Amino acid sequence: MQVTSEQRLDGGAFERAFTLGEIPGFLWTPGSASASAPSPLVLLGHPGGLHTMYPRLAARARRCVAQGFAAATIELPGSGERPRLASAEQARADLRRAIQAGQPVGDDIVDRLILPLVDKAVPEWRVTVDALLSLPEIGGPVGYAGGVIAIGVRLAVVEPRIAAAVLFAGSFVPRATFEEAQQVTIPLLVLLQWDDEGNDRQSALELFDAFGSKEKTLHANMGGHTGVPQFEGDDGDRFFVRHLR
Fold first, then answer.
1. Does the predicted model carry a pTM greater than 0.90?
2. Is residue 111, in this structure, part of any structural domain at all?
3. Quick check: bond before 148 cis, omega within 30?
4. According to the model, what pLDDT value does residue 10 have?
5. Rounded to whole angstroms, how far apart are CA atoms 37 and 55?
6. In the chain, how many domains are there?
7. Contact 152/76 with Cβ under 8 angstroms?
8. Is residue 173 domain-resident?
9. Which of 59, 91, 216, 245 is most buried by its number of CB atoms within 10 A?
10. Are 225 and 170 in contact (CB under 8 A)?
11. What is the signed CA dihedral for 204, 206, 212, 214, rounded to 10 degrees?
12. Helices marked H in 134-174 — which ranges?
């Protein structure tokens, strides 16, 4: 992992931009984090476009740091300045055509759009966790917060270091993800925007039902995709304090 810049933010967070091979990312740590008092880690998922998403990600990271957690995020495959994924680009074009024509978005389009992304992103997240947990000031356990929800589901299944997850139900869900959801056993908090025009509400509810976790909570709020209430951040903080400390 190569650090490309670093700065101290308001509120005491220490921010480092880094690259891990071809993968750019950001790491935020509390000023109190040290080898003798390492911080748990929260991975911040997002829909891609790291620099476009930076203001929202940095705000989420500051909340984590205020709770004594480190936070980190990486750019998704095919997003930002990373090389495009040809299969996903074609699927995205097919998706736009279906929506513009008022047609349902078929499983084939969803699979071609999401599954290659999941297959590439999840190993990259795991390599990132390896690198971050090798730093003396970060000690785990690890949480995951955000979307794309299919990435969060796969990580919860294959990455044993993830102890809890806050998942955003705001993206398309391949049928294979429902099968994987049955294998998820970690505590979950799932956020659903009831009026999200780009999200299949029924699909999100069915996915929540499929999760195998004994502790799983669904918070559904009125409003569109970007209208998640501020107080949900407080609930997410309490959730991670409960499970990462």
1. yes
2. no
3. yes
4. 80
5. 28
6. 1
7. no
8. yes
9. 91
10. yes
11. 80
12. 149-158
